Amino acid sequence: MLPVSRPEVTRRRSSGEDAARYIQRLIFDRELRPGDRVPQDEIARALGISRIPVREALIALEAGGWVTIELNRGAFVNTLDEPAVRDHYELYGLVYGLAAERAVRRGASGLDEELGKLVYALRRTDDPREFSRLVIAFHGAVIAAARSNRIAMALRALTGLVPGNFFELVPAAMDVQRRGSAAVARAVKKGDAVQAAEAYRRMMRRQADNVVALFRQRGVLQHRPRGGQSSHGSKSPSKTSLPSRTRP
């Protein structure tokens, strides 16, 4: 049986996005392991949704490298490796960096003041929920100032790697975010588009270090298999037996 507790649901997320976060959490908590078939019917029942958003979730997770979908067989959990994690955060840095560069070059009015206030607020809180809210506001301000639908679409396509509150799971990530956000804000205030983009890239690379360490600690980071095997390994998948409750 799948864990009965539901994922954190927000009003802004669709059923497919909630299903994706739930599946990620199962993998993160080792309820689903590399090579396991993802039990779509059970997930739909656990969340009280149809299979359609579950399938949407799996398509998004395949794009993010979490699963592999095989025709007429189902979806299987992939192994996560360090290069994949680092590539993911490199992409974040590039896209957010491009947003910052465009925002500066397009002369976004009041952006430097808004970012300055958010940086100040980030320094004054250690609460993971409030910190996460402020980080989302910081990124959102930069994206809005870039005035680019393409950039916004590219960021939406990047599925988050860490289910749950990243700053609660990795308190050290707060300091990386504070320093990185301050560097971005300083560059924006100076009108230095290139430095703003580079500050974003540096920050995301440092956060990649934190995510790699977290995944190693949780035992979900593995070496990439050799010899051209499929990403979920060569063994025959077995039916996953999951506990009735989530682990604390």
What does this entry look like structurally?
This protein is mainly alpha-helical and 248 residues long. It has 10 helices and 2 strands, in the order H-H-H-E-E-H-H-H-H-H-H-H. The chain has helices at 15-28, 40-47, 51-63, 82-105, 111-123, 128-146, 149-156, 166-169, 172-190, 193-218, and strands spanning 67-70, 74-77. Helix 4 (82-105) packs across helix 6 (128-146) and helix 5 (111-123) packs antiparallel against helix 6 (128-146). The chain is elongated and about 55 Å long. Residues 4-12 and 225-248 have low confidence and may be disordered.
Total number of distinct structural domains: 2
Distance between the termini: 17 Å
**Multimerization state:** single chain
Text of the CATH class of the largest domain:
Mainly Alpha
CATH superfamily of the largest domain: GntR ligand-binding domain-like
Level-2 CATH architecture of the largest domain: Up-down Bundle
Which secondary-structure class do the elements indicate? Answer: mainly alpha
CATH names the topology of the largest domain as Four Helix Bundle (Hemerythrin (Met), subunit A)
Q: Which whole number gives the mean pLDDT?
A: 85
DSSP, total strands: 2
**What is the topology, as strand order, of the major beta sheet?**
1-2
| Principal-axes shape call | elongated
Order of helices and strands: HHHEEHHHHHHH
Share of helix, binned: 55-70%
Point out poorly predicted stretches: 4-12, 225-248
**Rg for CA atoms:** 19 Å
| Major sheet summary line | 2 strands, antiparallel
In DSSP terms, counting alpha (H) and pi (I) runs of 4 or more, how many helices? 10
Strand content: under 5%
